[in-house]
Design goal:
Layout: H1 2-39, E1 42-44, E2 46-62, E3 64-68, E4 73-77, E5 84-85, E6 90-98, E7 101-109, E8 114-117, E9 119-120, H2 135-141, E10 146-147, E11 153-154, E12 159-164, E13 170-175, H3 178-182, E14 191-196, E15 199-209, E16 212-217, E17 229-244, E18 250-252, E19 255-262, E20 265-270, E21 272-277, E22 280-284, E23 293-295
Antiparallel strand pairs: 1-23, 2-13, 2-17, 3-12, 4-6, 4-11, 5-8, 6-7, 8-12, 9-10, 13-16, 14-15, 14-17, 15-16, 17-22, 18-19, 19-20, 21-22
Pfam families: BSH_RND_rel
Keywords: Membrane, Transmembrane, Transmembrane helix
Protein name: Putative membrane fusion protein
Length: about 300
C-alpha cells in the first residue's frame, strides 16, 4: 500500500517535469526559428562578367643613374625624395670641413631631367635596359635598400641618390605560371593591361622566355618610380558567372558551395569560384540561374532549414 501511495505521488511529478521540459524545448525551438528567419538574408543570383587576372611578382627596370659625392664631407639634400628636377639643377651639397669649420662646398647636379630618389637598393647597375640576366641570379642578390638624409657623413665617390628618367618608360620583368605561357595566348608586341593597386596601366609584351616575361610600361603611376620589386596583375581575359557575397560561400570537405532555396528548404550546392570584383565573388555551378535565390549570410542556416 505504501509503494502504491509513493508511486501515485511520484508519477504526476514526472509527468509535470516532462511537460515543463517539453515546453521549454518547444519554446526554444520556436524562438530559434523566429531568430533564424529574421536574421537570414536571401538574395537573387546576379549574372555578370569580370576580368580574369594573373598575379605576378617581378622587378622594375628603369633608366636611372647614380649620383656620386664629389668629396668627403657632410651631406645636405636640396630636393626632396620623389621630386622632379630639371637638367643641371642642384640636388645636393657636400660640406667639406676641417675641425668643425666649413672650408668648402661642393655641389651635385642633375645630369638630365628626371625624378630624384635618395634611396638606393644596389641594383641600379644590374637591372638596366638591355641587360641579359637570369631572374634567379637577381633574386639571390636581392634589393638592399638604404637612404641618406641631410647631415649624414659621406665619402668621396659614395652615391648620395639617383635620378630616374620617368619619361622614357619602365620595364617590368616577371614570372608567370607555366600553364599560362604554354597556352599560346601570349606573343611579343601584344598589348596588355596590368593592374597596380587597382590602377590600370597599358603595357606591351616585349619578350617571353619560358616562364619569364618582359613588359614595357610607357606611362605609369608616379608612385612606381620609387619601387623595385612589386606585384602586378595581368588582365588575361574575362569570365562570366554569378555574383555573390564572399561570406555566402561555405566549404564542405574542402569544396566551396552556397545554400540555395529549393522547395522552400536550404540546400547546399557545390560551386566553382572564378574570380572576385567589387567585394563580391564570381561563381558558376550546375543548375544556377538568375531565378535562383541564395542565402547571403549562411551563419544562421543549416541544411534542410525551412525558409520562405
Amino acid at each position: 500500500m505504501i509503494s502504491l501511495f509513493r508511486a501515485s505521488k511520484i508519477f504526476p511529478l514526472v509527468i509535470l517535469v516532462s511537460a515543463v521540459l517539453f515546453s521549454i524545448w518547444w519554446l526554444g525551438n520556436r524562438v530559434w526559428n523566429l531568430v533564424e528567419t529574421r536574421q537570414v538574408r536571401l538574395e537573387w543570383l546576379e549574372e555578370d562578367k569580370v576580368s580574369r587576372t594573373i598575379t605576378t611578382s617581378g622587378w622594375l627596370i628603369k633608366e636611372e643613374r647614380l649620383l656620386h659625392s664629389p668629396g668627403r664631407g657632410q651631406l645636405r639634400l636640396l630636393v626632396g625624395d620623389g621630386q622632379r628636377v630639371r637638367a643641371g639643377e642642384a640636388v645636393a651639397e657636400i660640406l667639406l670641413s676641417d675641425n668643425g669649420d666649413v672650408k668648402k662646398k661642393m655641389v651635385v647636379y642633375a645630369p638630365w631631367g628626371g625624378v630624384f630618389c635618395n634611396h638606393i637598393d644596389g641594383l641600379e647597375k644590374v637591372l638596366r635596359p638591355g641587360n641579359a640576366l637570369e631572374m634567379e641570379a637577381v633574386e639571390k642578390l636581392g634589393a638592399k635598400s638604404f637612404s641618406l638624409a641631410t647631415g649624414d657623413r659621406v665619402e668621396k665617390g659614395q652615391p648620395v641618390g639617383k635620378l630616374v628618367d620617368n619619361l622614357s618608360g619602365m620595364w617590368y620583368w616577371c614570372r608567370v605560371p607555366q600553364e599560362e605561357t604554354n597556352a599560346g595566348k601570349w606573343s611579343s608586341g601584344q598589348q596588355v593591361v596590368v593592374l597596380w593597386r587597382g590602377q590600370q596601366i597599358c603595357a606591351r609584351l616585349e619578350k617571353i622566355t619560358g616562364k619569364e616575361m618582359l613588359f614595357l610600361l610607357p606611362v605609369y603611376p608616379g608612385d612606381l618610380v620609387q619601387q623595385r620589386h612589386v606585384q602586378l596583375e595581368l588582365v588575361a581575359g574575362e569570365v562570366a558567372g554569378y555574383l555573390v557575397l564572399p561570406r555566402a560561400v561555405v566549404e564542405r570537405d574542402g569544396h566551396p558551395g552556397i545554400y540555395v532555396i529549393s522547395r522552400r528548404r536550404a540546400t547546399w550546392v557545390p560551386v566553382q569560384v572564378l574570380g572576385e570584383t567589387s567585394g563580391r565573388v564570381v561563381i558558376s555551378g550546375r543548375g544556377l540561374s538568375t531565378c535562383t535565390r541564395y542565402v547571403a549570410n549562411p551563419l544562421w542556416v543549416r541544411e534542410g532549414d525551412r525558409l520562405e
